[in-house]
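Need a sequence for this fold. Nothing fancy.
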């Protein structure tokens, strides 16, 4: 019985999404490491938007971004772009990497900067003050390109290291499967409610996201 219960719980978690009555606006985050996504299936699952990873640091881009952007729009989803902040690199190179790929298009959702990597692994020491300074420069540069305020997607480890959620006045995106997280210390706008959703939208797990009503 314990094995059966454990198997049911695992199946329930990997297929779980929040109740649409509580969170009417739901969607998907497509990472560069993910597989091919059927955006029409995302819409059939109740998704109304898709965030697409565009760039990472100063030198990496998701080569599928433009194709995913066109496919998501064809599926009648609202679309936004995400950049992964690399604290080991200067902001100028990172913003240039993002703006080369992401069009200046007012119909796009607000851009997202994902904060997960800390400076502890950099080849040269980067102070906490330098991380915050370069991040603020990057925020300003991406906002100037997009014409919209960025959303900060803060992972628990990054927040525990730098405690920036309460210091930078931007909307927050948090993550924790099944249970609403409180590590940011203030209200959030977006929540990755299932970090590995199994569905007909993709052969690989996707990140399922909801908006605070």
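Here you go.
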């Amino acid at each position: 019985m314990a094995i059966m219960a454990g198997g049911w719980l695992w199946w329930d978690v990997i297929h779980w999404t929040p109740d649409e009555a509580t969170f009417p606006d739901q969607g998907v985050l497509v990472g560069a490491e993910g597989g091919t996504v059927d955006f029409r299936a995302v819409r059939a699952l109740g998704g109304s938007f898709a965030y697409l990873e565009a760039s990472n640091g100063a030198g990496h881009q998701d080569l599928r971004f433009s194709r995913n952007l066109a496919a998501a729009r064809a599926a009648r989803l609202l679309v936004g772009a995400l950049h992964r902040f690399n604290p080991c690199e200067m902001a100028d190179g990172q913003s240039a990497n993002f703006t080369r790929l992401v069009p200046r298009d007012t119909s796009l959702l607000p851009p997202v900067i994902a904060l997960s990597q800390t400076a502890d692994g950099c080849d040269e020491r980067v102070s906490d003050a330098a991380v915050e300074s370069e991040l603020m420069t990057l925020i300003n540069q991406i906002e100037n390109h997009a014409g919209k305020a960025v959303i900060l997607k803060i992972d628990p480890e990054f927040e525990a290291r730098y405690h920036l959620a309460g210091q930078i006045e931007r909307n927050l995106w948090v993550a924790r499967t099944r249970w609403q997280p409180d590590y940011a210390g203030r209200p959030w706008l977006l929540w990755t409610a299932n970090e590995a959703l199994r569905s007909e939208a993709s052969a690989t797990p996707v990140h399922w996201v909801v908006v605070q009503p």
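For context: The radius of gyration is 17 Å.
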